[in-house]
Specification:
Number of strands: 8
Structural class: alpha+beta
Mean pLDDT: 85
Oligomer: single chain
Number of helices: 4
Low-confidence stretches: none
Radius of gyration: 17 Å
Helix content: 25-40%
Strand content: 25-35%
Order of helices and strands: EEEEEHEHHEEH
Strand order of the largest sheet: 1-2-5-4-3
């Protein structure tokens, strides 16, 4: 189980399973969202306006979420089309997480992917 708190949006994320892929999100109560895998199993819980439900001191003690960038930003950073990066995500060559309808890419994984590309596939500056 993984707990993170993002103070910029006051959201608490509790990840139950990190090995399953997101399929859908359901808001079970206002500001309480569950993410489910394809089989309908819950994989994470997100609580919006978390400071209304939990002591601020407890929330500040939780780790910040990993720094991720949206696919559009990752595309801009490396000069590749978003469709190319999306294809590499599906081929498991680029680590990313899908949250709702948006892919989020780990910048370290993006750097590793770019370093692994064949020389003919690299852009010349």
């Amino acid at each position: 189980m993984k707990w993170t708190y993002d103070p910029s949006v006051d959201a608490l994320m509790i990840g139950f399973v990190t090995t399953r892929k997101w399929a859908r999100t359901e808001e079970v109560e206002p500001g309480i969202l569950f993410d489910f895998d394809r089989a309908g199993h819950p994989i994470s819980l997100e609580i919006l306006d978390a400071s209304r439900h939990f002591p601020a001191r407890s929330l500040r003690a939780l780790p910040l979420p990993e720094v991720m960038v949206p696919l559009s930003e990752a595309s801009r950073r490396v000069g590749l089309d978003p469709a190319t990066l999306r294809q590499q995500i599906h081929r498991k060559r680029l680590r990313a997480t899908k949250h709702h309808r948006e892919w989020w890419v780990d910048p370290a994984a993006l750097d590793a992917y770019m370093a692994s590309r064949a020389p003919q596939g690299r852009r010349r500056d």
